[in-house]
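Illustration 12: phosphoribosylglycinamide formyltransferase 1.
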Amino acid sequence: MLKIAGLASNRGRNLLHIADRAPGGAELSVVLTNREGAPVLEEASERGIPTEVVERGDDSREEHERRVTSRLSGYDFDVVCLDGYMRVLTSEFLDAMPTTLNVHPSLLPSFPGTDAHEQVLDAGVRMTGCTVHVVTEEVDAGPIVTQEAVPVYEDDDATSLKSRVLREAEFTAYPRAVRWFAEGRVEVTADDVAVDGDEGGDFPDRRLASDDRVSGLRYGENPHQEAAVYADDSCSEANVVHATQLNEGAKALSYNNYNDADAALSLVKEFDEPAAAVIKHTNPAGCATAESLAAAYDRALSTDAMSAFGGIVALNRECDVATAEAITESFKEVVVAPAYSDAALDVLTEKKNLRVLDVGPLGEVTDHLTEKRLVGGRLVQERDTWAPYREDLTVVTEREPIDEEVESMLFAWRVLKHVKSNGIVLTSGTETVGVGMGQVSRVDAVRLAAMKADEHAEGKSADGAVMASDAFFPFPDGIEEAAESGIEAVIQPGGSVNDEDVIAAADEHGMAMAFTGRRCFRHD
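Figure caption equivalent — predicted structure in C-alpha coordinate form:
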Protein backbone atom coordinates (compact mmCIF):
# COMPACT_ATOMS: atom_id res chain seq x y z
CA MET A 1 0.00 0.00 0.00
CA LEU A 2 1.37 3.39 -1.00
CA LYS A 3 1.47 5.81 1.93
CA ILE A 4 1.43 9.55 1.37
CA ALA A 5 2.58 12.54 3.36
CA GLY A 6 0.48 15.48 2.21
CA LEU A 7 1.62 19.09 2.53
CA ALA A 8 -0.89 21.92 2.09
CA SER A 9 -1.16 25.54 3.13
CA ASN A 10 -4.90 26.07 2.76
CA ARG A 11 -7.85 23.84 1.79
CA GLY A 12 -5.90 20.89 0.42
CA ARG A 13 -8.77 19.85 -1.82
CA ASN A 14 -6.60 17.62 -3.97
CA LEU A 15 -5.27 15.80 -0.93
CA LEU A 16 -8.76 15.29 0.42
CA HIS A 17 -9.93 14.05 -2.97
CA ILE A 18 -7.07 11.55 -3.05
CA ALA A 19 -7.98 10.44 0.47
CA ASP A 20 -11.58 9.88 -0.60
CA ARG A 21 -10.70 8.05 -3.83
CA ALA A 22 -7.74 6.01 -2.47
CA PRO A 23 -6.31 5.51 -5.97
CA GLY A 24 -4.49 2.21 -6.22
CA GLY A 25 -5.22 1.64 -2.53
CA ALA A 26 -3.06 4.62 -1.51
CA GLU A 27 -3.75 6.34 1.79
CA LEU A 28 -2.61 9.51 3.52
CA SER A 29 -0.43 8.83 6.55
CA VAL A 30 -0.38 12.49 7.58
CA VAL A 31 -1.38 15.95 6.41
CA LEU A 32 1.00 18.73 7.38
CA THR A 33 0.41 22.43 7.00
CA ASN A 34 2.49 25.52 7.66
CA ARG A 35 -0.54 27.58 8.70
CA GLU A 36 -2.48 27.23 11.93
CA GLY A 37 -6.21 27.10 11.20
CA ALA A 38 -5.82 25.93 7.61
CA PRO A 39 -9.17 24.41 6.53
CA VAL A 40 -7.46 21.18 5.49
CA LEU A 41 -6.80 20.34 9.16
CA GLU A 42 -10.44 19.89 10.13
CA GLU A 43 -11.31 18.06 6.92
CA ALA A 44 -8.39 15.67 7.34
CA SER A 45 -9.23 15.02 10.99
CA GLU A 46 -12.82 14.17 10.05
CA ARG A 47 -11.37 11.49 7.76
CA GLY A 48 -9.22 10.10 10.53
CA ILE A 49 -5.97 11.37 9.00
CA PRO A 50 -3.32 12.56 11.48
CA THR A 51 -2.39 16.24 11.11
CA GLU A 52 0.60 18.36 11.94
CA VAL A 53 1.16 22.13 11.97
CA VAL A 54 4.68 23.53 11.54
CA GLU A 55 4.36 27.27 11.17
CA ARG A 56 7.10 29.41 9.74
CA GLY A 57 8.64 31.51 12.49
CA ASP A 58 11.64 33.79 12.48
CA ASP A 59 13.90 30.92 11.51
CA SER A 60 15.38 30.47 8.05
CA ARG A 61 13.80 28.45 5.29
CA GLU A 62 16.30 25.64 5.91
CA GLU A 63 15.61 25.60 9.65
CA HIS A 64 11.84 25.49 9.02
CA GLU A 65 12.26 22.59 6.63
CA ARG A 66 14.29 20.71 9.23
CA ARG A 67 11.43 21.10 11.69
CA VAL A 68 9.03 19.79 9.02
CA THR A 69 11.33 16.85 8.37
CA SER A 70 11.56 16.12 12.08
CA ARG A 71 7.77 16.21 12.48
CA LEU A 72 7.29 13.88 9.50
CA SER A 73 9.89 11.43 10.80
CA GLY A 74 7.29 9.88 13.07
CA TYR A 75 5.21 8.74 10.06
CA ASP A 76 5.68 6.06 7.46
CA PHE A 77 5.28 7.30 3.89
CA ASP A 78 6.51 6.48 0.37
CA VAL A 79 5.78 9.70 -1.47
CA VAL A 80 5.13 13.35 -0.62
CA CYS A 81 2.24 15.14 -2.32
CA LEU A 82 2.08 18.93 -2.28
CA ASP A 83 -1.23 20.72 -2.69
CA GLY A 84 -1.00 24.49 -2.64
CA TYR A 85 1.95 24.30 -0.25
CA MET A 86 3.19 27.83 -0.54
CA ARG A 87 6.86 27.20 0.05
CA VAL A 88 9.79 26.83 -2.33
CA LEU A 89 11.59 23.71 -1.17
CA THR A 90 15.34 23.38 -0.92
CA SER A 91 17.45 20.56 -2.32
CA GLU A 92 18.30 19.58 1.27
CA PHE A 93 14.63 18.93 2.03
CA LEU A 94 13.95 17.19 -1.27
CA ASP A 95 16.97 14.93 -0.85
CA ALA A 96 15.73 13.92 2.60
CA MET A 97 12.28 13.02 1.29
CA PRO A 98 11.10 10.27 -1.07
CA THR A 99 9.77 11.43 -4.44
CA THR A 100 7.84 14.66 -3.99
CA LEU A 101 4.97 15.53 -6.34
CA ASN A 102 3.08 18.74 -7.00
CA VAL A 103 0.14 19.69 -9.20
CA HIS A 104 0.34 22.95 -11.13
CA PRO A 105 -2.75 24.55 -12.73
CA SER A 106 -1.48 24.80 -16.31
CA LEU A 107 0.05 22.64 -18.99
CA LEU A 108 3.70 23.12 -18.12
CA PRO A 109 6.10 24.35 -19.32
CA SER A 110 3.54 26.99 -20.31
CA PHE A 111 2.36 29.44 -17.66
CA PRO A 112 4.43 28.63 -14.57
CA GLY A 113 4.08 30.68 -11.40
CA THR A 114 1.27 31.59 -9.03
CA ASP A 115 -0.93 33.42 -11.56
CA ALA A 116 -1.29 30.67 -14.15
CA HIS A 117 -4.98 31.27 -14.87
CA GLU A 118 -4.48 34.97 -15.47
CA GLN A 119 -1.59 34.17 -17.80
CA VAL A 120 -3.74 31.71 -19.71
CA LEU A 121 -6.51 34.26 -20.22
CA ASP A 122 -4.09 37.02 -21.20
CA ALA A 123 -2.42 34.74 -23.76
CA GLY A 124 -5.76 33.88 -25.37
CA VAL A 125 -5.04 30.14 -25.56
CA ARG A 126 -7.96 27.78 -26.11
CA MET A 127 -6.70 24.92 -23.98
CA THR A 128 -5.20 24.78 -20.51
CA GLY A 129 -5.22 22.15 -17.78
CA CYS A 130 -2.91 20.88 -15.08
CA THR A 131 0.43 19.17 -14.70
CA VAL A 132 1.54 16.70 -12.03
CA HIS A 133 5.31 16.86 -11.84
CA VAL A 134 8.21 15.83 -9.67
CA VAL A 135 9.26 18.71 -7.44
CA THR A 136 12.78 20.08 -7.88
CA GLU A 137 14.49 23.12 -6.46
CA GLU A 138 13.58 24.97 -9.65
CA VAL A 139 9.95 26.04 -9.36
CA ASP A 140 7.44 24.35 -11.72
CA ALA A 141 10.24 22.75 -13.73
CA GLY A 142 10.54 19.14 -12.55
CA PRO A 143 9.94 16.09 -14.76
CA ILE A 144 6.30 15.70 -15.78
CA VAL A 145 4.37 12.66 -14.56
CA THR A 146 1.02 13.35 -16.24
CA GLN A 147 -1.21 16.16 -17.53
CA GLU A 148 -4.90 16.73 -18.13
CA ALA A 149 -6.40 19.26 -20.55
CA VAL A 150 -9.35 21.60 -20.04
CA PRO A 151 -10.84 23.91 -22.71
CA VAL A 152 -10.84 27.67 -22.20
CA TYR A 153 -14.17 29.29 -23.07
CA GLU A 154 -14.93 32.85 -24.14
CA ASP A 155 -16.85 33.59 -20.95
CA ASP A 156 -14.15 32.26 -18.62
CA ASP A 157 -12.55 34.45 -16.01
CA ALA A 158 -9.82 33.48 -13.57
CA THR A 159 -12.35 32.27 -10.99
CA SER A 160 -14.34 30.03 -13.33
CA LEU A 161 -11.19 28.69 -14.94
CA LYS A 162 -9.64 27.89 -11.58
CA SER A 163 -12.73 25.95 -10.53
CA ARG A 164 -12.91 23.91 -13.74
CA VAL A 165 -9.20 23.15 -13.82
CA LEU A 166 -9.43 21.91 -10.24
CA ARG A 167 -12.45 19.67 -10.74
CA GLU A 168 -12.01 18.57 -14.37
CA ALA A 169 -8.22 18.30 -14.51
CA GLU A 170 -6.53 18.18 -11.09
CA PHE A 171 -9.12 15.80 -9.62
CA THR A 172 -8.34 13.47 -12.53
CA ALA A 173 -4.60 13.82 -13.02
CA TYR A 174 -3.40 13.78 -9.40
CA PRO A 175 -5.23 10.54 -8.47
CA ARG A 176 -3.93 9.02 -11.72
CA ALA A 177 -0.34 9.87 -10.80
CA VAL A 178 -0.81 8.48 -7.29
CA ARG A 179 -2.34 5.29 -8.69
CA TRP A 180 0.63 4.83 -11.02
CA PHE A 181 3.02 5.16 -8.08
CA ALA A 182 0.89 2.79 -5.99
CA GLU A 183 1.04 0.22 -8.79
CA GLY A 184 4.82 0.52 -9.00
CA ARG A 185 4.71 1.69 -12.60
CA VAL A 186 6.69 4.94 -12.29
CA GLU A 187 10.44 5.24 -12.70
CA VAL A 188 11.86 8.64 -11.74
CA THR A 189 15.32 9.73 -12.81
CA ALA A 190 17.03 13.08 -12.36
CA ASP A 191 15.43 14.61 -15.42
CA ASP A 192 12.75 12.20 -16.61
CA VAL A 193 9.73 10.12 -15.64
CA ALA A 194 8.79 6.84 -17.33
CA VAL A 195 5.42 5.17 -16.77
CA ASP A 196 5.12 1.50 -17.57
CA GLY A 197 2.00 0.70 -19.60
CA ASP A 198 1.07 4.29 -20.46
CA GLU A 199 0.57 3.30 -24.07
CA GLY A 200 -1.97 3.91 -26.81
CA GLY A 201 -4.36 1.50 -28.52
CA ASP A 202 -8.10 0.93 -28.29
CA PHE A 203 -8.02 0.84 -24.50
CA PRO A 204 -5.25 3.24 -23.44
CA ASP A 205 -4.40 3.87 -19.81
CA ARG A 206 -5.92 7.34 -20.13
CA ARG A 207 -8.36 8.83 -22.63
CA LEU A 208 -9.11 12.33 -23.80
CA ALA A 209 -12.36 12.78 -25.71
CA SER A 210 -13.16 15.98 -27.57
CA ASP A 211 -16.51 16.62 -29.24
CA ASP A 212 -18.06 19.82 -30.57
CA ARG A 213 -21.64 20.87 -29.92
CA VAL A 214 -23.68 20.77 -33.12
CA SER A 215 -26.78 22.31 -31.62
CA GLY A 216 -29.02 22.47 -28.63
CA LEU A 217 -32.06 20.21 -28.69
CA ARG A 218 -35.62 21.10 -27.75
CA TYR A 219 -35.26 18.75 -24.78
CA GLY A 220 -33.80 15.38 -23.84
CA GLU A 221 -35.61 12.09 -23.50
CA ASN A 222 -38.35 13.98 -21.66
CA PRO A 223 -39.49 17.62 -21.88
CA HIS A 224 -38.10 18.53 -18.43
CA GLN A 225 -34.55 17.48 -19.45
CA GLU A 226 -32.22 19.85 -21.29
CA ALA A 227 -30.03 18.33 -24.02
CA ALA A 228 -27.60 18.98 -26.85
CA VAL A 229 -26.00 16.93 -29.61
CA TYR A 230 -22.21 16.79 -30.00
CA ALA A 231 -20.26 15.68 -33.05
CA ASP A 232 -17.07 13.72 -33.46
CA ASP A 233 -15.70 15.30 -36.64
CA SER A 234 -13.04 12.61 -36.95
CA CYS A 235 -15.70 9.97 -37.70
CA SER A 236 -15.69 8.93 -41.36
CA GLU A 237 -18.44 6.29 -41.09
CA ALA A 238 -21.95 7.13 -42.30
CA ASN A 239 -23.84 8.49 -39.29
CA VAL A 240 -26.92 10.48 -38.37
CA VAL A 241 -25.06 13.23 -36.49
CA HIS A 242 -23.41 14.49 -39.68
CA ALA A 243 -26.36 13.64 -41.92
CA THR A 244 -27.94 16.30 -44.12
CA GLN A 245 -31.61 17.00 -43.39
CA LEU A 246 -33.05 17.42 -46.86
CA ASN A 247 -36.41 18.97 -45.96
CA GLU A 248 -35.09 22.08 -44.25
CA GLY A 249 -38.52 23.38 -43.33
CA ALA A 250 -39.25 20.43 -41.06
CA LYS A 251 -38.52 20.61 -37.35
CA ALA A 252 -35.09 19.57 -36.18
CA LEU A 253 -34.34 16.12 -34.82
CA SER A 254 -35.06 15.52 -31.16
CA TYR A 255 -32.89 13.63 -28.67
CA ASN A 256 -35.02 10.52 -29.13
CA ASN A 257 -34.97 10.93 -32.92
CA TYR A 258 -31.17 10.91 -32.94
CA ASN A 259 -31.07 7.86 -30.69
CA ASP A 260 -33.60 5.90 -32.74
CA ALA A 261 -32.17 6.98 -36.11
CA ASP A 262 -28.71 5.84 -35.01
CA ALA A 263 -30.13 2.45 -33.98
CA ALA A 264 -32.01 2.10 -37.28
CA LEU A 265 -28.99 2.97 -39.40
CA SER A 266 -26.77 0.58 -37.45
CA LEU A 267 -29.23 -2.25 -38.14
CA VAL A 268 -29.46 -1.82 -41.92
CA LYS A 269 -25.66 -1.60 -42.15
CA GLU A 270 -25.68 -5.31 -41.28
CA PHE A 271 -26.89 -6.31 -44.75
CA ASP A 272 -25.53 -6.28 -48.28
CA GLU A 273 -28.94 -7.04 -49.81
CA PRO A 274 -31.61 -4.31 -50.04
CA ALA A 275 -32.72 -3.87 -46.43
CA ALA A 276 -35.25 -1.84 -44.48
CA ALA A 277 -35.82 -1.49 -40.76
CA VAL A 278 -38.44 0.27 -38.67
CA ILE A 279 -37.28 1.26 -35.19
CA LYS A 280 -39.25 2.32 -32.12
CA HIS A 281 -37.46 3.28 -28.90
CA THR A 282 -34.20 1.88 -30.39
CA ASN A 283 -35.75 -1.59 -30.85
CA PRO A 284 -36.67 -3.09 -34.22
CA ALA A 285 -40.41 -3.18 -34.82
CA GLY A 286 -39.51 -5.01 -38.01
CA CYS A 287 -36.66 -5.65 -40.45
CA ALA A 288 -36.32 -7.44 -43.78
CA THR A 289 -34.14 -7.90 -46.82
CA ALA A 290 -35.58 -8.53 -50.28
CA GLU A 291 -34.84 -8.20 -53.98
CA SER A 292 -36.17 -4.65 -53.95
CA LEU A 293 -36.15 -1.92 -51.33
CA ALA A 294 -39.91 -1.46 -51.52
CA ALA A 295 -40.47 -5.16 -50.86
CA ALA A 296 -38.02 -5.09 -47.94
CA TYR A 297 -39.85 -2.13 -46.41
CA ASP A 298 -43.26 -3.76 -46.87
CA ARG A 299 -42.08 -6.93 -45.11
CA ALA A 300 -40.39 -5.02 -42.31
CA LEU A 301 -43.49 -2.90 -41.70
CA SER A 302 -45.85 -5.88 -41.74
CA THR A 303 -44.06 -7.40 -38.75
CA ASP A 304 -45.72 -4.90 -36.43
CA ALA A 305 -47.33 -1.99 -38.27
CA MET A 306 -49.09 -0.83 -35.12
CA SER A 307 -45.83 -0.41 -33.17
CA ALA A 308 -44.14 1.13 -36.23
CA PHE A 309 -46.51 4.13 -36.07
CA GLY A 310 -44.36 7.19 -35.35
CA GLY A 311 -41.18 5.16 -35.80
CA ILE A 312 -37.91 5.62 -37.64
CA VAL A 313 -37.26 4.04 -41.04
CA ALA A 314 -33.75 3.19 -42.24
CA LEU A 315 -32.80 1.95 -45.70
CA ASN A 316 -29.44 0.73 -47.00
CA ARG A 317 -30.06 1.73 -50.62
CA GLU A 318 -31.09 4.90 -52.42
CA CYS A 319 -34.73 5.48 -51.59
CA ASP A 320 -36.84 5.15 -54.74
CA VAL A 321 -40.31 6.54 -55.32
CA ALA A 322 -42.08 3.23 -54.66
CA THR A 323 -40.48 2.93 -51.23
CA ALA A 324 -41.14 6.59 -50.47
CA GLU A 325 -44.83 6.21 -51.30
CA ALA A 326 -45.09 3.17 -49.02
CA ILE A 327 -43.36 5.01 -46.16
CA THR A 328 -45.73 7.97 -46.34
CA GLU A 329 -48.83 5.81 -46.14
CA SER A 330 -48.50 5.92 -42.32
CA PHE A 331 -46.97 8.36 -39.86
CA LYS A 332 -43.21 8.17 -39.47
CA GLU A 333 -40.86 10.55 -37.68
CA VAL A 334 -37.63 10.12 -39.66
CA VAL A 335 -36.32 8.40 -42.78
CA VAL A 336 -32.60 7.60 -43.02
CA ALA A 337 -30.99 6.51 -46.28
CA PRO A 338 -27.70 6.85 -48.20
CA ALA A 339 -29.45 8.72 -51.04
CA TYR A 340 -32.86 9.62 -52.50
CA SER A 341 -34.16 9.83 -56.05
CA ASP A 342 -35.68 13.17 -57.01
CA ALA A 343 -39.11 11.55 -57.30
CA ALA A 344 -38.75 9.98 -53.85
CA LEU A 345 -37.80 13.35 -52.34
CA ASP A 346 -40.87 14.95 -53.90
CA VAL A 347 -43.05 12.38 -52.16
CA LEU A 348 -41.29 12.47 -48.79
CA THR A 349 -41.05 16.24 -48.48
CA GLU A 350 -44.80 16.58 -48.89
CA LYS A 351 -45.03 15.35 -45.29
CA LYS A 352 -44.38 18.45 -43.21
CA ASN A 353 -43.01 16.76 -40.09
CA LEU A 354 -41.20 13.82 -41.69
CA ARG A 355 -37.47 14.41 -41.31
CA VAL A 356 -35.49 13.11 -44.31
CA LEU A 357 -31.83 12.35 -43.55
CA ASP A 358 -29.17 11.70 -46.19
CA VAL A 359 -26.21 9.96 -44.53
CA GLY A 360 -24.25 9.45 -47.75
CA PRO A 361 -22.64 6.18 -48.88
CA LEU A 362 -22.72 3.59 -46.09
CA GLY A 363 -19.19 2.36 -46.78
CA GLU A 364 -17.22 0.50 -44.15
CA VAL A 365 -17.55 0.44 -40.37
CA THR A 366 -14.76 2.66 -39.02
CA ASP A 367 -15.88 3.32 -35.45
CA HIS A 368 -14.84 0.11 -33.70
CA LEU A 369 -15.61 1.15 -30.12
CA THR A 370 -18.80 2.06 -28.31
CA GLU A 371 -19.11 3.72 -24.94
CA LYS A 372 -21.70 4.42 -22.30
CA ARG A 373 -21.46 7.20 -19.79
CA LEU A 374 -21.92 6.16 -16.16
CA VAL A 375 -22.14 8.29 -13.04
CA GLY A 376 -18.46 8.49 -12.12
CA GLY A 377 -17.01 7.08 -15.33
CA ARG A 378 -17.77 5.36 -18.59
CA LEU A 379 -17.79 1.89 -20.10
CA VAL A 380 -15.86 1.38 -23.34
CA GLN A 381 -16.05 -1.79 -25.40
CA GLU A 382 -15.47 -3.12 -28.88
CA ARG A 383 -18.43 -2.72 -31.18
CA ASP A 384 -20.22 -6.01 -31.79
CA THR A 385 -19.57 -6.43 -35.51
CA TRP A 386 -19.52 -10.24 -35.45
CA ALA A 387 -22.25 -12.27 -37.05
CA PRO A 388 -22.16 -16.01 -37.85
CA TYR A 389 -21.86 -17.59 -41.24
CA ARG A 390 -22.99 -21.10 -42.08
CA GLU A 391 -19.59 -22.57 -41.16
CA ASP A 392 -19.77 -20.96 -37.70
CA LEU A 393 -22.87 -22.92 -36.71
CA THR A 394 -22.72 -26.14 -34.71
CA VAL A 395 -25.85 -28.20 -35.16
CA VAL A 396 -26.60 -29.97 -31.85
CA THR A 397 -29.94 -31.65 -32.55
CA GLU A 398 -30.83 -34.86 -34.31
CA ARG A 399 -32.51 -32.93 -37.11
CA GLU A 400 -30.30 -30.82 -39.34
CA PRO A 401 -31.75 -27.45 -40.37
CA ILE A 402 -32.64 -27.20 -44.05
CA ASP A 403 -30.97 -24.51 -46.18
CA GLU A 404 -33.91 -22.12 -45.85
CA GLU A 405 -33.79 -22.42 -42.07
CA VAL A 406 -30.05 -21.75 -42.01
CA GLU A 407 -30.55 -18.62 -44.14
CA SER A 408 -33.25 -17.46 -41.74
CA MET A 409 -31.05 -18.20 -38.71
CA LEU A 410 -28.22 -16.07 -40.08
CA PHE A 411 -30.58 -13.21 -40.90
CA ALA A 412 -32.22 -13.44 -37.48
CA TRP A 413 -28.89 -13.16 -35.66
CA ARG A 414 -28.00 -9.91 -37.45
CA VAL A 415 -31.31 -8.41 -36.38
CA LEU A 416 -31.05 -9.82 -32.87
CA LYS A 417 -27.80 -7.93 -32.25
CA HIS A 418 -29.90 -4.74 -32.26
CA VAL A 419 -32.63 -5.93 -29.87
CA LYS A 420 -32.52 -5.09 -26.17
CA SER A 421 -31.83 -8.07 -23.94
CA ASN A 422 -33.32 -10.42 -23.08
CA GLY A 423 -34.09 -10.58 -26.77
CA ILE A 424 -35.84 -13.08 -29.02
CA VAL A 425 -36.37 -12.67 -32.76
CA LEU A 426 -38.66 -14.85 -34.88
CA THR A 427 -38.02 -14.90 -38.61
CA SER A 428 -39.26 -16.49 -41.78
CA GLY A 429 -36.87 -16.30 -44.68
CA THR A 430 -35.17 -12.92 -44.40
CA GLU A 431 -37.93 -11.03 -42.66
CA THR A 432 -38.90 -10.67 -39.04
CA VAL A 433 -42.08 -12.30 -37.83
CA GLY A 434 -42.07 -11.25 -34.18
CA VAL A 435 -39.69 -9.51 -31.79
CA GLY A 436 -39.58 -10.00 -28.02
CA MET A 437 -37.31 -7.38 -26.49
CA GLY A 438 -36.13 -6.11 -23.13
CA GLN A 439 -37.58 -8.86 -20.93
CA VAL A 440 -36.03 -9.89 -17.63
CA SER A 441 -37.16 -13.45 -18.32
CA ARG A 442 -36.09 -15.27 -21.48
CA VAL A 443 -39.29 -17.30 -21.45
CA ASP A 444 -41.29 -14.07 -21.38
CA ALA A 445 -39.26 -12.81 -24.35
CA VAL A 446 -40.27 -15.96 -26.25
CA ARG A 447 -43.90 -15.46 -25.30
CA LEU A 448 -43.79 -11.80 -26.34
CA ALA A 449 -42.22 -12.56 -29.72
CA ALA A 450 -44.80 -15.28 -30.41
CA MET A 451 -47.66 -13.02 -29.33
CA LYS A 452 -46.40 -10.24 -31.60
CA ALA A 453 -46.14 -12.69 -34.49
CA ASP A 454 -49.61 -14.13 -34.01
CA GLU A 455 -51.51 -10.97 -33.06
CA HIS A 456 -49.67 -7.98 -34.59
CA ALA A 457 -47.94 -9.27 -37.71
CA GLU A 458 -49.82 -9.00 -40.98
CA GLY A 459 -49.91 -12.29 -42.90
CA LYS A 460 -47.33 -13.90 -40.61
CA SER A 461 -47.30 -16.16 -37.60
CA ALA A 462 -44.89 -17.95 -35.30
CA ASP A 463 -45.91 -21.27 -36.81
CA GLY A 464 -42.98 -22.62 -38.81
CA ALA A 465 -40.68 -19.74 -37.84
CA VAL A 466 -37.03 -19.74 -36.86
CA MET A 467 -36.21 -18.42 -33.38
CA ALA A 468 -32.99 -16.60 -32.41
CA SER A 469 -32.00 -16.02 -28.78
CA ASP A 470 -29.30 -13.55 -27.73
CA ALA A 471 -28.07 -15.84 -24.91
CA PHE A 472 -28.37 -19.49 -23.96
CA PHE A 473 -31.55 -21.04 -22.62
CA PRO A 474 -30.84 -21.86 -18.97
CA PHE A 475 -33.72 -24.36 -18.88
CA PRO A 476 -35.84 -26.24 -21.43
CA ASP A 477 -38.89 -24.05 -20.69
CA GLY A 478 -37.99 -21.56 -23.42
CA ILE A 479 -37.86 -24.35 -25.99
CA GLU A 480 -41.14 -25.79 -24.70
CA GLU A 481 -42.78 -22.37 -25.06
CA ALA A 482 -41.40 -22.01 -28.59
CA ALA A 483 -42.67 -25.47 -29.57
CA GLU A 484 -46.17 -24.56 -28.42
CA SER A 485 -46.09 -21.64 -30.86
CA GLY A 486 -44.99 -23.86 -33.75
CA ILE A 487 -41.37 -22.72 -33.99
CA GLU A 488 -39.33 -25.26 -35.93
CA ALA A 489 -35.69 -24.15 -35.70
CA VAL A 490 -33.53 -22.32 -33.16
CA ILE A 491 -30.23 -20.46 -33.23
CA GLN A 492 -28.66 -19.62 -29.88
CA PRO A 493 -25.19 -19.28 -28.31
CA GLY A 494 -25.30 -22.45 -26.19
CA GLY A 495 -23.12 -22.78 -23.14
CA SER A 496 -25.67 -23.46 -20.41
CA VAL A 497 -24.98 -26.13 -17.81
CA ASN A 498 -28.38 -27.46 -18.88
CA ASP A 499 -27.60 -27.60 -22.61
CA GLU A 500 -28.24 -31.34 -22.71
CA ASP A 501 -31.77 -30.87 -21.34
CA VAL A 502 -32.42 -28.01 -23.76
CA ILE A 503 -31.20 -30.09 -26.71
CA ALA A 504 -33.33 -33.01 -25.57
CA ALA A 505 -36.40 -30.77 -25.50
CA ALA A 506 -35.66 -29.60 -29.04
CA ASP A 507 -35.23 -33.19 -30.21
CA GLU A 508 -38.50 -34.19 -28.57
CA HIS A 509 -40.31 -31.57 -30.66
CA GLY A 510 -38.41 -32.32 -33.88
CA MET A 511 -36.70 -28.94 -33.88
CA ALA A 512 -33.38 -28.18 -35.51
CA MET A 513 -31.05 -26.19 -33.27
CA ALA A 514 -27.64 -24.64 -33.90
CA PHE A 515 -25.18 -23.06 -31.49
CA THR A 516 -23.09 -20.03 -32.42
CA GLY A 517 -20.71 -20.17 -29.45
CA ARG A 518 -21.17 -16.43 -28.96
CA ARG A 519 -23.94 -14.38 -27.42
CA CYS A 520 -25.15 -10.92 -28.46
CA PHE A 521 -26.44 -9.15 -25.36
CA ARG A 522 -27.48 -5.53 -25.83
CA HIS A 523 -28.26 -3.44 -22.78
CA ASP A 524 -28.35 0.17 -24.00
